[in-house]
């Protein structure tokens, strides 16, 4: 045999061997995927995990804000391209303006973000926006001030300032009254107490023991869930049927959640997992945002307390979801036209009225959490919903894909934070 034929035969053998190896690898990968699928926790993948039609919580504002953006759709009117002219003959009343800037009924008042001298008695103003106590000496004309209140986006596309006029919170006359009041502000603010000065007000520090049931009634959810764990549901089985040692079996699990779930083509959080897994295994129907679901979520998180959060950020599905979540965190929503990244990014570590705006890191490790002001447990999806409603927008059902993307994005920013659930917050 000639050298050429030997080389050709050798190459052919290598190619054949390569194809065989590739086929073997593909078979191994397929087998591995099949094995992982078999090991995956059973899930009911049909239907919704929360009540439909979705009904807003009792005591929450019932207003319909469907004409403004939500995390699921865009509806808000666009920003103006040019400043408006002040309507001819329109003059302002400073006394009326003083009342309007302190009126909390429409968006929380200007004092939520601005120090404004004597307005509202200077009681707990915020500092996420410029101090306007001496704005009357700045030489700003009526048209500039009118447009900044009407829709500040005409001057700054990324402003946190709500479009008070464009989004229908105040009419032209009311805006002009506020302009007249602003022009009277010429002296630095004088505060009754140091706590009233947002630049001296200390950041809140939570010192209560959140794992002491005498301090935190959220711990009662652990007892409730432990009883639920052993109760047989419609299918004759209980959680205990397969998980007789939850302390060992779920020692770290909650710290790995949420995660991308290919079977649902969405991010799956602990609360939705509870609903879908219970349906598939025991027949229990613990819908999201019910007391039973919250109790079980508290318990599963509690079992993983002290474990650093470590969610999947590298798989293709997780990467795509995190990218979507980051984009959603910058979406301006609601009548106040604000985004997650405004309060917890652009103006983080400042005060909005008497509420401290924290950074994204540290916002997830204590959820579900006991709300002392409401005497109930909230999970993270309810927190998302309230943020939307609080800026005068419409919330989504708790199992919405958008909330899953947002939760995974925030979880990725909280990698390494140790779980401490249930938390305790005002």
Overview features:
single chain, 426 residues, mainly alpha, Cytochrome Bc1 Complex, Chain D, domain 2, 2 domains, 3-stranded mixed β-sheet, two-stranded antiparallel ribbon
The spatial strand order of the largest sheet comes to 6-5-7
Per CATH, the superfamily of the largest domain is Cytochrome c-like domain
Question: Could you tell me the radius of gyration in angstroms?
Answer: 28 Å
Number of domains: 2
Structural class: mainly alpha
Approximately what portion of the residues adopt beta-strand conformation? under 5%
Secondary-structure element string: HHHHHHHEEHHHHEEEEHHE
Name of the level-1 CATH class of the largest domain = Mainly Alpha
What does the largest sheet look like?
A: 3 strands, mixed
SS field, number of helical segments: 13
């Amino acid at each position: 045999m000639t050298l050429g034929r030997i080389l050709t035969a050798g190459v052919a053998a290598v190619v054949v061997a390569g194809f065989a190896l590739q086929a073997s690898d593909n078979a191994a990968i397929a087998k591995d995927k099949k094995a992982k699928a078999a090991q995956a926790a059973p899930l009911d993948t049909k239907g919704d995990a929360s009540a439909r039609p979705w009904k807003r919580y009792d005591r929450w504002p019932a207003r319909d804000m469907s004409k403004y953006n939500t995390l699921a759709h865009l509806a808000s009117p666009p920003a103006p391209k040019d400043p408006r002219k002040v309507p001819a003959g329109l003059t302002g009343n400073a006394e009326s303006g003083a009342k309007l800037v302190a009126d909390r009924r429409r968006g929380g008042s200007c004092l939520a973000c601005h120090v404004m001298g004597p307005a509202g008695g200077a009681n707990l103003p915020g500092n996420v926006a410029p101090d306007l106590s001496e704005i009357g000496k700045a030489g700003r004309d009526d048209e500039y001030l009118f447009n900044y209140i009407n829709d500040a986006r005409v001057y700054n596309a990324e402003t946190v300032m709500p479009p008070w006029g464009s989004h229908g919170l105040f009419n032209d006359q009311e805006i002009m009254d506020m302009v007249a009041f602003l022009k009277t502000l010429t002296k630095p603010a004088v505060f009754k107490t140091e706590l009233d000065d947002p630049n001296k007000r200390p950041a809140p520090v939570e010192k209560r023991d959140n794992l002491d049931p005498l301090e935190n009634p959220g711990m009662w959810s652990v007892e409730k869930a432990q009883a639920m764990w052993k109760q047989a549901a419609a299918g004759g089985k209980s959680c205990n049927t397969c998980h007789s040692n939850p302390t060992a079996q779920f020692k770290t699990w909650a710290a790995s959640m949420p995660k991308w779930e290919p079977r649902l083509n969405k991010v799956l959080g602990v609360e939705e997992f509870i609903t879908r897994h219970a349906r598939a295994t025991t027949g229990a129907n613990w819908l999201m945002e019910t007391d039973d679901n919250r109790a079980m979520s508290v318990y599963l998180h509690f079992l993983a307390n002290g474990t650093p959060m470590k969610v999947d950020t590298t798989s293709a599905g997780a990467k795509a979801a995190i990218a979507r979540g980051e984009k959603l965190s910058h979406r301006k929503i609601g009548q106040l036209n604000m985004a997650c990244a405004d309060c917890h990014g652009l103006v983080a570590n400042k005060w909005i009225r008497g509420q401290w705006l924290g950074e994204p890191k540290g916002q997830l490790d204590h959820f579900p959490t006991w709300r002392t002001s409401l005497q109930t447990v909230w999970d993270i999806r309810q927190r998302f919903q309230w943020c939307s409603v609080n800026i005068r927008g419409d919330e989504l059902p708790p199992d919405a894909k958008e909330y899953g993307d947002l939760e995974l994005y925030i979880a990725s920013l909280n990698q390494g934070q140790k779980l401490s659930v249930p938390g305790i917050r005002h």
